Amino acid sequence: MIELVIVSRLLEYPDAALWQHQQELFEALASSEKLDKGDAQQLGVFLRDLISQDPLDAQAAYSELFDRGRATSLLLFEHVHGESRDRGQAMVDLMAQYEQHGLELDSRELPDHLPLYLEYLAQLPESEAIGGLVDIAPILALLHARLQQRESRYAVLFEPLLKLANTAVDSEKVAEKIADEARDDTPQALDAVWEEEQVKFFADQGCGESEISAHKRRFAGAVAPQYLDISNGGQQ
Q1: Which residues fall within 8 angstroms of residue 146, CB to CB, at 6 or more apart?
Q2: Which NCBIfam families has this protein been placed in (predicted)?
Q3: How confident is the model over 53-89, as pLDDT tens digits?
């Protein structure tokens, strides 16, 4: 499903490849048969506005939105398992799922990163791809609502995904869930998380000297993700 490839590209960290392949994305949007006219137009406007920015500004805004706090994280298991040990096994299981379909990760991205998962679904038969979207529909709805609450342009990318999933998600319950959420991306909230993790780290490691590795963008210094030939990539 080429539509999943398009959204995956737009949800990726906006590196140089986005500007280099912008025309392919516009052409793919124009040729899509599964997006309704309104959604295709919204995605086109989103892409136009994104590439009109200075790349450094677009990258800074992206990191500010998706890398600060956990509420808008694009790591799927963050919203399911949090920091529990079940998350590690879920990662292993998802990697095995990718390998069963002949896919191997060639970047340092985690397997539950939403753009990567969409790329995977795009290679499956349509019924299986839609089934995969149904599985994560509650997470997509939650992210969509939080991004809308923050008045982020990125919210429009989740609307076609939810429509393609064609499953009922109770929007009122989602709205109730986020209504009283405290923002976790403020300096105060981030400091509290850092202090909590530091305490846990030393509790686990004892008093010996240890190096605490600060969280950095996984994209920093990484090879740019490979672009599919979206003139026919993702089609089954």
Answers
A1: 71, 72, 178, 181
A2: narJ
A3: 999 999 999 999 988 878 888 988 777 755 656 667 7
The reported pTM is: 0.71
Terminal-to-terminal C-alpha distance of the chain: 7
How do residues 117-167 score in pLDDT, each as one tens digit? 899 899 899 999 999 899 889 889 889 988 988 899 999 999 999 999 887
Burial 190-207 (b: 16+ CB within 10 A, else e): eeeeeeeeeeeeeeeeee
Could you give the dihedral angle defined by the CA atoms of residues 69, 115, 62 and 92, in that order, rounded to the nearest 10 degrees?
Answer: 40
Q: CB 235: neighbour CB atoms within 10 A?
A: 13
Contacts of 79 (CB under 8 A, 6+ apart): 73, 139, 142, 143
DSSP 8-state class, residue 78: G
In the block, residue with structure tokens 């499903």: 1
Phi/psi zone of residue 209: left (φ > 0), alpha (ψ -120 to 50 degrees), beta?
beta
* All residues at 6 or more sequence positions from 82 whose CB lies less than 8 Å from its CB, including other chains: 70
CB-count burial class (<10 Å; 0-12, 13-18, 19+) for 52: exposed
Q: Which two tokens stand for residue 188?
A: 């105060």
Which residue bears the tokens 């605490």? 212
